[in-house]
UniProtKB/TrEMBL annotation:
Name used for this protein in its record: Formylglycine-generating enzyme family protein
Superkingdom of the source species: Bacteria
Domain Sulfatase-modifying factor enzyme-like as annotated: residue spans: 13-261
Species whose genome carries this gene: Solirubrobacter ginsenosidimutans
GO MF annotation: an example: formylglycine-generating oxidase activity
């Protein structure tokens, strides 16, 4: 497939053009859900250079009055899943040791009541569901990327990313970082691997589990890509372009965000 010519200026500030092409999607070397490796072709598209930040999401909320899923009346109460480091080494077969549902946790109170994002305007927004991400994308005249578009844009080697440096889940916790704190990939994109997982438009239909939180049940799931600051060599090797996980569409967490694409 010939590369798609760039169609003029970016549709908005902070986007870059990814010329279409064919690539080997997936991996045979890590987790079952990444198999098989297959040839996939994508058309050219514009993509956000960085994940949507708290500052950009705040502007969207101010202009639209959007109330995120985590802020709505829920049973038992509005809230979201928050990561808490453990006091010491633990067995890694029960995520409930480091994840908990925190009432009041949301995009502007990432750790729950008493926390805020006043100094984190350049950090990726978190505690958003696909519904929230798609509402933002519609407001911005954009869409969520497909799994293939995301992985194609993420291609390359990553030597330094915001992952867990230390022994998960107790020693070495970093948290999210401002976009641009780590080097871009070969396409000039920031935080495609590490920092926060990112929602895509594709359903997750495989029967495999995941490492980073609850994925079972009857609620439909979406593919998330890229790994996060909680990925660690001793626990989760999903801080790679080919890696993916399924996340319930009604679930928001302190380590999942998103970025947008625009297709010509």
């Amino acid at each position: 497939m010939a590369a798609t010519a760039q169609p003029g200026a970016p549709p908005r500030e902070g986007m870059t053009w990814i010329a279409g092409g064919t690539f080997a999607m997936g991996s045979e070397d890590f987790y079952p859900e990444e198999r098989p490796v297959r040839q996939v072709t994508v058309d050219g598209f514009w993509i956000d250079v960085a994940p949507v930040t708290v500052a950009r999401f705040r502007r969207f909320v101010r202009e639209t009055g959007w109330v995120t899923v985590a802020e709505r009346e829920l049973d038992p109460a509005p809230g979201s899943l928050v990561f808490h480091p453990t006091a010491g080494p633990v067995a890694l077969d029960d995520f409930r040791q480091w994840w908990s549902y925190v009432e009041g946790a949301c995009w502007h109170q990432p750790e729950g009541p008493g926390s805020d994002t006043y100094t984190r305007g350049k950090h990726p927004v978190v505690h958003v569901t696909p519904e929230d991400a798609e509402a933002y994308a519609a407001w911005a005249g954009a869409s969520l990327p497909t799994e293939a578009e995301w992985e194609y844009a993420a291609a390359g080697e990553y030597e330094l990313v915001n992952r867990w440096y230390g022994e998960f889940p107790w020693r070495g916790y970093r948290g999210t970082s401002p976009v641009g704190a780590f080097p871009p990939n070969a396409r000039g994109l920031l935080d495609m691997v590490g920092n926060v997982w990112e929602w895509t438009a594709d359903p997750y239909e495989l029967g495999h589990g995941g490492c980073c939180g609850p994925t079972a049940g009857e609620v439909p799931r979406r593919v998330i890509k890229g790994g996060s600051h909680l990925c660690a060599p001793n626990y989760c090797h999903r801080y790679r372009p080919a890696a993916l996980q399924g996340e319930a569409i009604d679930t928001s967490t302190s380590h999942i965000g998103f970025r947008c694409v625009v297709r010509p």
